[in-house]
């Protein structure tokens, strides 16, 4: 049989009305391989072989979500891309208040809202509120060491939220 005329022998012409003989498994495999090679040639790769990385860097850009990267590095990149670094740092400060300001101060104070460089600190007594007001300069310096220079510009101190009614503490 010739390659040009399936189902015929070399030199013989196909008779009109004769159906071509079904292809064998090996012929189908050869055709599939030839098609795969042709497709690979279009893509400039060879089937069954891995692509070699270029010596100029990695094959994938991790910032585009193409390859694996460390979780911490991915989170930092996300925070940076979205402009959330300062918010995340301030949120971390709220969770780690005791380490930043010390155990004694943390027992009597808690961070409140943070907006436009102003941190609201709530105190559990008027005496501690006065103490924090006196230490506010040092507190701003310490917070800026943790969060980055210029993040906290002012500390607003609030005392206990209980309002004493007139005559409430009178002895009868």
Automatic annotation (TrEMBL):
Biased composition (Low complexity): 13-22, 31-48
Lineage: Bacteria, Bacillati, Actinomycetota, Actinomycetes, Streptosporangiales
Signal sequence range: none
Protein name stated in the entry: DUF721 domain-containing protein
Pfam families hit by this protein: DciA
Region (Disordered), start-end ranges: 1-72
């Amino acid at each position: 049989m010739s390659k040009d005329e399936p189902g015929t022998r070399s030199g013989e012409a196909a008779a009109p009305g004769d159906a071509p003989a079904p292809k064998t498994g090996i012929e189908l495999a050869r055709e599939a391989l030839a098609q795969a090679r042709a497709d690979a040639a279009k893509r400039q790769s060879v089937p069954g072989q891995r692509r070699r990385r270029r010596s100029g860097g990695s094959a994938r850009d991790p910032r585009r979500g193409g390859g694996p990267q460390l979780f911490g590095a991915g989170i930092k990149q996300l925070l940076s891309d979205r402009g959330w670094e300062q918010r995340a740092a301030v949120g971390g400060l709220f969770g780690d208040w005791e380490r930043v300001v010390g155990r004694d101060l943390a027992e009597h104070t808690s961070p409140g809202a943070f907006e436009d460089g102003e941190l609201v600190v709530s105190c559990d007594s008027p005496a501690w509120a006065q103490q924090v007001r006196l230490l506010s300069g040092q507190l701003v310096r310490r917070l800026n060491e943790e969060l980055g220079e210029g993040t906290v510009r002012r500390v607003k101190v609030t005392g206990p939220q209980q309002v004493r009614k007139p005559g409430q503490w009178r002895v009868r």
